[in-house]
Model the fold of this input.
Amino acid sequence: MKKRRRVDPDSIYRDNPKLIAEHLNAALARRDRSAVVRAIGEMIRAQGGSRFSRKSRLGRESLYRSFSGKMSPRLDRALDALSALDVKLVVKAN
Done:
């Protein structure tokens, strides 16, 4: 019998900007601020907290607090996090 290898769900998002963008766009489509903030936090954790902290030049504890969904991070912090995830925020007319 073949053993099934457990796949870490976070690993599919690690270093994969296309999948990260899809995940964040799905959260944005819900039009729920806390869902978007949590989705960014999930993508940060998928990259590995310490590793992402070094890449983004933002403190690890501060990142976790800011993107837990319980508070609203400042726009500059959110844009820095998105940039470190190798995605960007795009605004389009309806």
